[in-house]
Design a protein that fits this description.
By secondary structure, this protein is mainly alpha-helical. It has one domain: Growth Hormone, Chain: A. The protein contains 15 helices and two strands. Strands 1-2 form a two-stranded antiparallel ribbon. A hairpin with a 5-residue loop joins strand 1 and strand 2. The longest helix is centred in the last third of the chain and has 48 residues. The N and C termini lie far apart (47 Å).
């Protein structure tokens, strides 16, 4: 395999498997603690926020370290190996083991939720080292403005492909049973671990930048220096827009599967979502070439339009309460397709623009800013808004006498409002850019 082939193979493999791991965390950890330990919306919000903080701190630190030593490959490959082991560790978080370890006097479910939140932060440390910091810096170093849209289109479609893989792979498991989660964590963790080993053979080390005199601390805080901000206005304006975009996504995403399954009563939601995911992934892959040809602003408007229209349909047509009729599933499907297409194409648009405006040979130190915009601020703010919207949501009584909340379609209205704020910001950014270029 030539170097070009190895690059595209590494991009696809590391991006896909990394996103599979993130899907398990972002969409299924919530389901895990909801089903196994009767977690509340507040528990889910706390877990998402704690993981977001861990991701940001890790990416800032490891991104700077990888810049200082001029290496990406070792952080990617070893990081994936350790990431895999940390995912496997979740297989041991079960009520029977927690009760045996802490005794019958404690609330085993509450302790288990706490353990999951702590383990999530540990897993995020290894995942952010491998993926957020090292892989994303590597991808920036290995591409330029002639192919970043194409590369980012592939990279950005992978979350949807990963969702499809996870949905399809999980169909045979009863997620109400603890042993199903044990198998899931061992399988996913093992796959991530093996990809880390494979990476030593297929990942090429990009050309290293020249060492500077900043020192480690100076490299860590480099992107926060006023002089750097002033010198790179387009980068920081793009990051600001990216924050609002991801807040919109995080308002509903932590509750999405629970909403489909429990609130809409779609027992086989995988069969409904799979076609939407496949179509949205195809849209995103093609959209990358559109980005390369037309640039940021002309690409951002259609993707944001798709996202907002998807929100409107999901809010207006919540499936006639329990989605008992096939006809009522159609607007839910179309809304999901538009929402997912807008989400992933928007990620590609912002991702390519951030890479295009990242100073050369400094990708590592700027990954922390990217993760702050993508994960930290949205991961704290978005779920909090979602939890506030669902504060008085309907509750149901489970077979064991415990209660659980039911997410409702208000989360899509809140997400739409955040997206509308982004639309205004994009118009302002465009005006400022034209003024600066004049």
């Amino acid at each position: 395999m030539n170097n070009k082939g190895k690059f595209w193979a590494a991009l696809v493999i590391f991006s896909l498997v990394g996103q599979i791991a993130w899907v398990v965390e972002n969409m299924y950890f919530n389901v895990f603690i909801y089903k196994m330990f009767n977690a509340t919306a507040g528990d889910i919000s706390t877990m998402v926020a704690a993981s977001a903080v861990a991701a940001a701190v890790t990416t800032i630190l490891i991104g700077a370290v990888s810049d200082r030593i001029g290496k990406r490959k070792i952080f990617m490959c070893l990081g994936y190996i350790l990431w895999g082991f940390s995912i496997i560790a979740f297989a041991f978080v079960r009520l029977d083991l927690v009760s045996g370890l802490f005794g019958a006097a404690v609330n085993a479910a509450a302790v288990a939720v706490t353990i999951v939140i702590i383990l999530d932060c540990v897993m995020t440390f290894f995942g952010s080292t491998a993926n957020d910091a090292a892989y994303n810096a590597w991808l920036t170093d290995m591409t330029d403005q002639t192919n970043r849209g194409k590369a980012e289109g592939i990279n950005s479609m992978m979350p949807l492909v990963a969702i499809l893989v996870v949905f399809g792979g999980f169909m045979g498991f009863d997620l109400d049973k603890a042993e199903s989660w044990t198998y899931i964590y061992v399988i996913i963790g093992g796959a991530v671990l093996l990809i880390g080993v494979l990476g030593f053979f297929i990942v090429d080390e990009p050309a290293a930048g020249k060492p500077d005199e900043l020192g480690l601390l100076g490299t860590i805080i480099y992107g926060l220096r006023p002089k750097v901000v002033k010198s790179n206005p387009k980068l920081y304006l793009t990051l600001l827009g990216f924050i609002v975009f991801n807040i919109s996504i995080q308002i509903f995403m932590p509750y999405l599967i629970i909403y489909y399954e429990k609130s809409l009563g779609i027992a086989n939601y995988v069969l409904i979502m799979a076609p939407a995911i496949i179509a949205a992934a195809a849209v995103t892959a093609v959209y990358g070439r559109f980005i390369d040809k037309h640039g940021f602003y002309k690409s951002a408007v259609p993707s944001l339009g798709m996202l907002m229209l998807g929100y409107v349909l999901l809010f207006l047509f919540p499936g006639a309460i329990k989605c008992e009729g096939t006809a009522m599933m159609i607007p839910v499907f179309i809304g999901s397709l538009l929402m997912l297409s807008g989400f992933l194409s928007g990620m590609a648009v912002f991702g390519a623009e951030i890479r295009n405006n990242t100073p050369l040979k400094m990708a590592g130190r700027f990954q922390g800013l990217r993760i702050i915009a993508q994960v930290l601020i949205p991961g704290v703010v978005g779920p909090k808004i979602g939890a506030a919207v669902l504060k008085n949501a309907e509750t149901i009584t489970n077979s064991d006498g415990t209660t659980s909340f039911l997410p409702n379609n208000s989360i899509f209205l809140a997400a739409f409002i955040a997206a509308a704020v982004l639309a205004v910001l994009l118009a302002v950014f465009r005006a400022l850019t034209k003024k600066h270029e004049a």
